[in-house]
Amino acid sequence: MQLIGHEAIVQRFVRALHGGQLHHGWLLYGRQGVGKHTLAQYLAQHYICESRQACGSCHGCRMFMAGSHPDVCHCAPLEGKRDLAIDQIREVLGFLALSGSESERRVVVMDDVDRMNIQAANALLKSLEEPAPGSLLLIVCHDLMRLPATLRSRCMLTPCAPLDQSQTVQVLQAMGISENCLPLAQQLADGCPGRMACMLDDALAEALVEWQQLTHDAAAADIGAVEQWLRRYVRMTPHALMAEMVIRSHQPKLMEKCSLAHYRAVDEALTALARWPGEVLRHSLRAAPTFLALFLALRLAVRQSGA
Ligand SMILES: [Zn+2]
Question: Structure pTM?
Answer without folding.
Answer: 0.84
